[in-house]
Input
Amino acid sequence: MELVTVNMVRWNTRCLSTGHQSVTYGPAGGMGGYGSWLGRTPAGEICEIDLFADPLFEQVNSIVKSLRASDETVDEATRDVLGFACDPSPADQYYTFMYTVCCPVCGSEEVIFGPDDPPMVEFRQIPRVTHKKWDSIEPKQRIELVKRMLIDRGWIPE
Ligand SMILES: [Zn+2]
Output
């Protein structure tokens, strides 16, 4: 597993339904930086994808384009399903590259989060995401996988 060093800001999280308090990290340069995206799992695991070096986004994007009538939401839909083309995390969860932050304790999305005052910024080593399964399957299977995820996520009708 390749590790990359990313400048990150510490966020304190508070779970609205249970009061769980925990900590997670976000990109110090704002959400979803240029050329490099962070993925996260409900458990709070974080990964990175290098959109320039890694062909995955283009591969998924071209399939999403081929399955959709409208151009307007193609990139957002690609972002939403990208994590399902990646290998699961060490805790066996799928990463999302959307802006979703979950409670690291219970996985609830009903969470508020924010930096300390002043913000705690630190360099952290996080894994670069892999997609060995995706690389090993046939083009037809890739299309089926993306199609299924687009349906599940409400981007295209059944
Ligand atoms: Zn919680």
